[in-house]
Amino acid sequence: MANTHGTQDQQPTLSRTLGLGSVVIFGIAWVTPLIALATIGIIVQLSNGTAPTAYLVTLAAMLFTAWSYGRMASVHHQTAGSAYTYVGKEIGPRLGFLTGWLILLDYFFIPLVVWLIGAAYLAQHFPAIPMSIWIIGFIVLTTVLNIIGIKVTVRANILLVAFQLLVIAIFIALSLSYYAGADTGASLLTPFFNEHTTSAAIAAAAAVAAYSFIGFDGLTLLTEETRRPERTIPKAMMIVVLFFGVLFVSVAWCAQLIHPGSSFNNTDSAALELASMIGGNLFAAFLLAGLVVGQFACGLAIQAGASRLLFTMGRDGALPRALAYVSPQQRTPVVSIMLIGLTGLAGIFLDVTTSASFINFGAFGAFTLVNISVIVHWWRHRPQQGAVGLLSWVILPLAGAVIDFYLLLSLESNATLVGSIWLLIGLVWLAVLTRGFRQPPPRLSLDEAEQTG
User: Fold this and answer.
1) What are phi and psi of 18, to 5 degrees?
2) Where does this one sit in the cell (predicted)?
3) Is 397 helix (H, G, I), strand (E, B) or coil?
4) Do 282 and 23 touch, CB atoms closer than 8 A?
């Protein structure tokens, strides 16, 4: 491979500064601990009062997919790119491009949804201040922090994650205390199974609960800024998924202990209803503060990760090359970060339901293809022989692919429509790049990626 060190036209590259702890913190901030309470009412209602069981089913599905991402991250550890890289390398560059395009639908608009939710909470309690002001405030602050540098982002995330975990710890403690002193009619096993439990209800709730885990895959986008990524990224992904699995099940279990059944006065604000029940208005206000902090931390992490995907695709020529510009001073992809921020301004004209309805299409599509990529890699290269190899590289990824594809088919019609339109636009852009599919799309630049240290 050509060595470009010392050339005058070499652009600054990303710096490897992140260890396992930093990557795990980043993943926890990305998924957001308080999403467990923010969506608890919906999961409880859909599952007929057995939310922890729904989360257990979802945990199994996400572990399969995290395993496959880990397999691919260990093989392709030289460069960032997530599902875009893996599918492109294993199945083909055209499908890889379309996978990157699909995951862009997820990454590109999740920050918008996150900032919009946070602004909605604040606007409800401070009606004198227009919601657009809160949205702009979220965008400006997170964009500035991400431009300053990835290490600053990690430090900020540590504080924000710690506060969220404190809120959850207090919620669990107050819930157990409330349950011990009140006759709620629930046994310790009632949250997992009751007379209204059905497989259809559990499946419906699990499909929605999967949204709570989306974001763990974004850790692969930090490959070029992580020390020993072939080991660090797979470990971090499994740690993050297991952490959230335990957290979500625990929170759901406590919620169903103090509130058996599936009805709330307002499903969308069920967390505040539960908080008032166990801790009064004071804890409800504290929980609200935690939810806003959680949205900020999530937006901070997701904007950073999404900009890295734009950086990689821009560097390869799959998207405009201006997106690959790296600040010589801060060593961050400034143009990509700012584009994500500007996209968030669309939240001023959208509501939460509309903006959130279509992002799962890209996530589940990419998850399915990554699982398939692991199987293809094993078929071609046989990295591991025997029963262990078959289990690691075929059976587990196949289970993940089947479940993820089922979740993709379970999306509502509006999400499928928007996702299909986005995919069609991607096909048109791919046709332009490849001159009518006669040429392969731009390939990854491994030379540059290997010189980031």
Assistant:
1) -95, 135
2) Cell membrane
3) helix
4) no
